[in-house]
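Chapter review: from sequence to fold.
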Amino acid sequence: MPTHEPDRHETGPSLEQILGLIDPGMLDVVVAPRGTGVPVTDVVLLDPGEEREDEGGAECGDGGPERLEGGTRAAAGPVLLAVGVEVASPEAVDVLRAADRAGAAAVVMRRGTRGPRAALLEAAGRGSTALLARRPGLGWTEVLGRLRTALVHSAPAGSAGVGALRLGDLSGLANTVADLVGGAITIEDPQSRVLAYSRLDHEPDPMRRLTILGQEVPRWRVVELRESGFFRALWSTEDVVRLPADARYAERLAIAVRHGPEVLGSIWAAADGRPLAGDAVAALRTAARAAVPHLSHHQTWGRAAARAREGAVHALLKGDVRAAHEAGITADRPYAVVVAEAYDVHGEQASSTVTAGQRVLDVLALQAAAYRPGCVTARSGRQLYVLVPAGDGEGGPSRSLLATVRSAPRDVVLAGAGPVAAGLSGLPASREAAELVVRVLRERAASRPAGEVVSAVAAYDEVVPEATVLRLLDRVEPLWGALSGPVHAMVEHDRAHGSAYGDSVTAYLDASCDTGAAARRLNVHPNTLRYRLRRARELFGVDPADPAVRLLADIGLRLAARRGPLGTDRARRA
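The token string follows.
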């Protein structure tokens, strides 16, 4: 069993502080003979099987509790996790006494179907170690991680700016450190994967761009740094390691972030169009200490917290204003909703290729987090939703997001920004408007040849007419399917026979009934188009000269386009 010999003058966060930072009900205080103000030095696993080999451990005086008198602080000690021990088990008393002899501040046991025995409660009352019970259904690994995160988060941060950050706010941490060192910051895990990066105030150098777009340091670069001994130096020291500039890349400073012997990740600073600050090395040392609780939080809670936060964002976008706190949204601040979709160069949804789609949308999410404090994101299938605090106007946020992926040649991003919502209740309307903008951009892209499809971004007020048409078509579509008429007959003929009467009428209407312009759009002779229009009138009764038919044709052909190509071969002509 591990022993702990605390310095009797050692101080640390109290047990009460640590319990206040974990989920309510995760651990219950059964007995606390010294109260919960006792300082905690560490969180470690206790192996009851080692106790019989450790009978020489120090006793706690006469076995009575060490009380807090006259403002004197109790002796510090660790929190021991008694893995496999229930409060109702026969060995629980022996384990508690072993924790007492080890100088523990508290010992945690599993709460079973029965409560603690009277003998255990009596022993706890006479001892000096607090007895805590773990909630059923929790794993010991989760308890260990959360207690350790709470422990390091309770320590002084070392920097007022960093210390004011919300726990786990890695993007805020990156931006704060960037301000301290005067350079571009990347926070990475031990496998060189990007966890967060600072906002892009200047054009990034090629390596930073590759790292951000790939969400990890390129494999060839990792091999290069490993073979040069750089990683060995980085992981074996607690100080800053310098990577000099060369003909390819700017100078970089890096430091490992450690929690005891465990490496949680690293912070990298790169010259960002200007020399790094003179005190950049000292600032990185401070940042590495302050980053421990944030990276520890990410390691332990990151995925679960991200899923919960994403669910809260979706709930908020559907109108549940109660989800604002969990989503990380300030209730009295105006927000705009930005929606983004990723496609490949052929105009196909990038998410049809899972790796490509995830990469592009994940990069956009990272960029959104780095763009401005308070941005929150949520994925939904093929789309990324971003809640952006108002400030740059409706188009600003989405254009800033789009700038990150412009250098990725296979990626086409369509991004739409809804109007600013004055309050949380207006977010669903902003979301709906942003989705309509993306639909408008999608229809524009569909009308272009595949090789000409490019990234596009727009705000709702820039596409109001087209968005209004989409809203009207959404309302009309259910009714249209229940009707019949000349336009229905023409559309069904095109689908059955691969003809292109619908294409010809659509081009004619889009060209404001200008035969020459419509023919050029279809790449046919004007006489060919006139023949097709005459045949459409003769076969189906679709006469564009009739205002009523012209209106119905415009509606019906727009709705038909939603179902895909009208013919089996769009290049085939009637």
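Two observations follow directly from the output. The longest helix spans residues 280-317. The CA atoms of residues 25 and 550 lie 67 Å apart.
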